[in-house]
Sequence to fold (616 residues):
Amino acid sequence: MHLLTFCFRNLTGRKVRTALCVLGVILATTFVITVGATTIRYTAVIKEMNILFSGEVMVVSKEAIVIQAIPIGGGLLPMNYTLTELQETEGVEKAVPVLFVTPIGIGTTIQPVPVNFSMGIPVGYWQLILGPTPLKGGVGRFPENETSREVAVGVSLADQYNWNVGDHITVNNYLLRVTGILDTKLALLSRCVIMPLRLAQQVYNYHGSVNIIAVSPETGYSLSTVADNIEQKIGHVKALTEDERNDVVQPILTQVETWNLGIQSVVFFMSLILVMTVTIMSVSERRRDFATLDAIGAPLNYIFRVVIVETALIGVLGGSLGLLFGSISAIAVASVYTNIPIPQFIPSIFEIVPPVYIIEILSATIIICCIGGLIPAFHAAKIRISEVLKAEY
Amino acid sequence: MIIKTLALTKIFRVGPKEIRAVDNVSLDVEAGTFTAIVGPSGSGKTTLLNMIGLNDYPTSGKVLLDNENVSVLSGRERRRIRLLRIGFVFQTFNLLPTLSALENVELPMALARKPPHEQKERARKLLGDVGLTHRLNHRPKELSVGEMQRVAIARALANDPELIVGDEPTGELDSKQGKETIDLLRRIGQAHGKTVILATHDTKAVEAADKIYEIQDGKIGLH
Fold:
């Protein structure tokens, strides 16, 4: 008879206790996964924000509140005046004005990580801002001129609202035609409506204003030199390099990750105590069984393994179910947070709960359960039949 | 298996008090015989059997199995002997409650790393020999006490040991079941040339024994 069968029988022979112990592990794993996956997604989305303006200096109003490369509040820039000033600044090769508007259609609350947003980009500069983002199925195109009422939309928005190329959508009472769907895994771009800059200014009533100007440095000029030059020349702007943008959020991200780790540690420690307590009780109740194993000559390491394998099985079962419930819970949290329906998250479940994270948490759960079994296993291996019989008679 | 004990003594310390549970016991058991150790409760029968069965160390003296002093062996070596050369039958059966009768009998063979098919085949045969073919997949709680003791006997025989040690094997059984158990042990001992040594109150066991030792206050003598 296999050790695993023996241990499985021992667990199923004490159904209520095993179920309660497994339930405790499930709850702990569910909580860890929910908090962890939400944090991972949150930080990933924030990190993603910088991809759009990688290698460029971002010029924003001095009053702007900026998270990575996304202005989430604060002032606007007078477009023509600022562009002229920038073009006269030493080291500036190209300056592309962009209008970010967030959120669309969900009130006016500032969100640190916007759920939906619109982006106005001058026609012809799509690639500069969006990078090599393809259109879904190779169908459609980007808007062709500044005044056409045409937009490209992110794939997540298109899926949620069932938008297709050629459909008409309404943004701020403007009827706009979808010319392409951005096929991207970036959370931000997938929730974005891209339109020509002038159209965006018209739709959102920001005539002549933008909130970002992306500046490419001339060859031979570093980003920081160009940023310094811009800030010296133009008083009403701040110029942020990629490093400076990272510096703003990095401490926040580190703090979030540290808190996450702290919460995980506390929850795992509680699981450890739970498994240890239940297993110690179980070993105490089964003194006679362990003594019998000792009497019939079971090697010490076999008795030790019986307890460890039992706790490992609790870890595997509790961890697996916890992963399942945790993933569902993480999706539900993401859905509530982003206002995107749950079914839309299911195909991208591994982006919300990454496989590496699944493996990490499952391994951690099993290891912690095994550690929880160590002390009871030592106790079990020390039980002798002579002592048990002495206590009985 | 020939069993000898030489001046075997076991002292328990309870607070400042010393209890000589087994006091200077020397006995000889011939191979293939059926030996009974009788005595009142608390006389030291179980302690003596625990030392003979290598489940406990003596305070002084020696246990010789086939003339080898096993008192000085390491815990690991003693376990090996318990697993392969000694079968135990306890008063309270000590079957593992979560395993079926068949699995309880398979367990010592699994511990001895016998091939799975051999474990199953032999466990079936042994349970058949004790008349439990119809109870293979029953858990201990689904068996009568007599049946439980028969499963325990089958388990004791699993690794074909040379010595069977029984500590009051009929203690929990009624007289009919007790007689059947003694007959079974006697029959198995004779048929397979096994040495059987029992601690018992049971007159049936005493009647069946080739040799009877009487123990009183830890001291032993031939009956």
